[in-house]
Amino acid sequence: MKTRINGEWVVGFKDGRHALYRDACVVYEGDRIVHAGDGYEGEADRVIEAPGCLLMPGFIDTHVHSGHRALHKLLTDIGRPDLFGQPYMEVTIARAGTRIQGYPNYLTREQAQVDAGVALHAAFTVSELLRNGVTTFVELGGHVIVQEALWKQCEALGIRGYLGPGYDSGRWASDEDGNLTRAPYPDGGLHLFNDAVAFIERVEADASDLVHGILVPREVENCSVDILRRTVAAARDLGVPMATHAGYNVIEFYETVREYRKTPIELLDSVEMLTPALNIGHANFISDSPRLNYSGGSDLRRMGDGKVSVSHCPVNIVRRARVLDSWKSYREAGVNMTIGSDTYPRDMIMNMRTASYHGKVMSHDLTAATAEEVFEAATLGGARSLGRDDLGRLAPGAKADIVAINLARKDVLRYGPIWDPIRSLVECGVGDDVDMVITSGEVRMREGRIPDVDLGALRGEAQAFAERVWGQVQDWDPLRRTARMMCPPSFCPDCE
Q1: Could you tell me the pLDDT band of residue 207, with boundaries at 50, 70 and 90?
Q2: Domains identified in the chain and CATH numbers
Q3: Which whole-number Å values give the CA distances from 243 to 103, 165, 213, 220, 282, in the listed order?
């Protein structure tokens, strides 16, 4: 069946880049785009009217961690200074002899199988992404049980997921006094690597375009050279992309330099991992950053030469007093910039705006990180990172992944008069403006409603789950802090 969607603006594709059309349409048949732009005179079996809407390719979120992020809610405006603003270390490291609650990514298989939060986390994650106009996402390193729960949700709600069970050779731990220690696995993490490969083989054998595999050695400083080399070889054999966290934290940077006399990026280069198949999470603390006072580094050049992708998660890192230095220099070096949400909210429009504003400030250039550039990063950049030329664009032959953004809502004045809908979206938009989401030619959300998903009830479940977790924080926190001690509520009359 051939479907035509009429919109006020359409982001088509021409001469290798996005092209904007006024009073145009998108036509698709089956799961593929037939036409995007103006001048269409063919017939259609069905017509969808989207007045006042911007029709555009679905967002590609290249950095997702499953969950409602209850523990990260305890890190707003506060945190341990000795962890240098790194939320991952604050919410995943338990005091010796204890176990974190509400964060299943580091559980054993036996623990994860009986964890009540896994299914809730997956449902919350995929529903939030879909509600915000994300049609493809990359999950970086959750437990294989987490990935299996996400797989079910991708199939149920019709969103495309690149799922990567995380593995490493050990992990950060804490002693009784809250000091950081390293806890290596007896087999160097080989069992986790094998689990990840087996999962990817199952996914690829399923042959559904809604679910794909990606190899994710979680954090570069916790992975042995052997595991990294196995990753590169497996990526070639399986034909799948790779992702890892690198250049994301002061501790990670100096620990890697201390252990290998190489920066994290140099370590990845030494195992031939810096290729277009690699998506590096954050990469904001690289040798070129003036905040590290590291002399003679060439990380940015190495990443550019390798044509790697960086999943830039601007809202998450700026909340932790970190920033990319700078968007303009990364692009000029040849790095493929993409946008990720990482923690919360999974609002790609908000992340585009934050990337644009901080890209200008850190580049000292008001023409840097333009609306065009961040929009491209959230669509075409994500597609390039996955090796897909049929995603991130509305072009004949591309997947029918279409999002309608309502720029003419009758209940807000936020947009005001619109001269350029892309600039208006980046400057004024929020995820709630997403009116319709189509993936592979199927309408998955309309007027903010996802079939068979009660968003209010889902949020209520998440709140109740979070309340239970917050009541137990002192049982595993390395410093024995309660939730109120970690994050005193604003204007709290009885908080110290």
Answers
A1: confident
A2: 2-57+397-446 (2.30.40.10), 59-385 (3.20.20.140)
A3: 21, 11, 11, 10, 11
